[in-house]
What we know:
Elements: E1 5-8, E2 22-25, E3 29-37, H1 52-69, E4 77-85, H2 89-103, E5 110-115, E6 125-134
Parallel strand pairs: 4-5
Antiparallel strand pairs: 1-2, 3-6, 4-6
Helix pairs in contact: 1-2
Amino acid sequence: MPHPVQLIHATSSSASTEYASAAVVAAGTRLIFLAGACPLNVDGTTAAPGDYAGQAAACLRTMAQGLSDTGAGIRDVVSTRILVASDERADLSTVWQVVREAFGDHDVPSTLLGVTVLGYGGQLVEIEAIAALAD
């Protein structure tokens, strides 16, 4: 059975993104909408204070656990939204590099946003994801 997630890469000459521009999910697929993965330690404290890359890695671990809890994995992710509490492009780029490395060649459509504040004290990064599994 083919994988239920098909990544589409733009073919226009103006497309310069290093990730898919769209994703298609096959009929008969179960969608999984994950809450934003936050960089929290088991005791509820914020992981990697002041460290954008460290918090991105912590969010990815949280996201991986959420995916695992549903029977999915990172290759089942259809799209992501990455929130970074910063107005500095360098901070967004730091987070993006950690996320890109984690996803490897499964380069899902993603949105990277700089935001004013996130929900937990000291939180710098949050990652939302949608995944799909064949029924």
